[in-house]
Amino acid sequence: MTSGTPEQGHIGRRAVLKGVLGAGTLAGTHAAFTGPAGASVDETGHDGERGVEHGVEHGVEHGWGKVADAFRANFRDPGEVGAACSVYVGGRPVVNLWGGLADREARRPWRGNTIVQVASTTKGATAICAHLLVQRGLLDVDAPVARYWPEFAAAGKEEIPVRWLLSHQAGLPIVDGPLTFEQACAWHPVIRALEAQKPLWRPGTEHVYHSVTFGFLIGEVVRRITGRSLGTFFAEEVAAPLGLSAWIGLPAKQERRVAKLHESAPFSYEELLAGLIATTGLDAETVTAWVNAVWAPGSVQARAGELGGALTDPAVFGTRAWRAAEFPAGNMLADARSVARMYAATVSDVDGVRLLDPPTVERMTEVQTASTRMHGLPPGLNVPADRSFWMSLGFWRACPPMPLTGPASFGHPGSGGSIGFADPDAGVGFAYVTNLWNYRPDDARAANLVRAVRSCLG
User: Fold this and answer.
1) Residue 48: which pLDDT band, with cuts at 50, 70 and 90?
2) Has 409 been annotated as catalytic?
3) CA–CA separation, 117 vs 416, rounded Å?
């Protein structure tokens, strides 16, 4: 692992995890992919081809070959280790692809049932759980959090509505701590800490990415209403009806399916700036000031990923303890089919299951951060929300750095490169997952696939 700060001239895994890109990118392997053991796209690359690898069907429907081509190209440039992509349209699958290696060192192929950590793509699943409760009349996003969780009212938080938890405006991105990893896995110590925590700003006036606390805040509201943990609620109310291979809190018997994470090469401060300038369309002076504020040692965004010290050791993210616990902001394990199917069921009927109705989707995807300022920016610096943090009630909305398949699209990316989203206008559910975690803002892998989807939609 390589770490660094702008002052050190080198950006590595921990620096990016602690920064704004913790939300996800705004946007020997080759031989294994093109050989029979690692390939899941038909060798001709033509539309309508389907195949079976290890007894699992995969392929593309007629008219969707460009997505298969883009998936194959990702293994050449920028170079995948293992990955999967799935697309649903109108409630039915049209693309289901996987390839490469689930473990590069062991030469273990990525199979149809391989699952992988999807980081903050988890937040989309967590938000869907919250909106199921809204739809059922059990949760009011404009009600104070304390209505459902009375102890939350301490330290000046009695008037904070659920809406501000979902849109990262509550002023609770960090936990002062100290917390250990074991305490974080136990859930309740984090909840007690958040109850005592004072907001960092006047809630509702600023926003900043609540990279880890988001999951505990929303998860506790769900637990107080339903009596079930977020992971259990997700399993019973989302995953089971849809037949998903997705877990927030992984059962031990599923460990054999987990892909090993690999990291791309660290990149320089100059490369980070260039990538953000290219993806956001902002000028170099604005991007430089923004990055220096975000990655400054001890900054709020840097501390947001530490959870009071519980997550400062990157080694914990590869442990069984991490996968078994519930961190509803970032530790879901899933395959691409499940993430795409979940999102498809928010905008379409999927085999008789529709998670959310159109009015719920319309309300939950209204942008919330357009009129509030990002916390921690220097005085006078303007970073438009639609170029940096275009957040609705738990979901990123399509914006210039992340156009997705249309302006109504909503979803959530994950640090390292994964993403899931839905497009209510086109009836699309999309997912891309990978075990080669790349933190560059100009990581093109998901963007290449989404661009191909747009082309196929016409």
Assistant:
1) low
2) no
3) 10
- The pLDDT tens digits for 8-28 are 444 444 444 333 333 333 322
Which two structure tokens, joined as six digits, stand for 122? Answer: 């988890």
Question: What gap in Å lies between CA 139 and CA 441, rounded to an integer?
Answer: 35
Q: Which two tokens stand for residue 360?
A: 């719920």
Q: Which of 120, 338, 348, 409 is catalytic?
A: 120
H helices then E strands: how many in the chain?
18, 18
Written as six digits, the tokens of 114 are: 């391989």
Beta pairing, strands 436-437 & 262-263:
parallel
Phi, psi of 272, deg, nearest 5: -60, -50
Integer angstrom CA distances of residue 345 from 15, 59, 101, 153, 250? 35, 21, 29, 35, 22
pTM exceeds 0.85 for this model: yes
Q: List Cβ neighbours of 287 (8 Å cut-off, separation of 6 or more).
A: 273, 276, 277, 280
Pick the range with the lowest mean pLDDT from 86-100, 128-142, 228-242, 285-299: 285-299
Sign of the dihedral defined by the CA atoms of residues 204, 119, 398, 289, in that order = positive
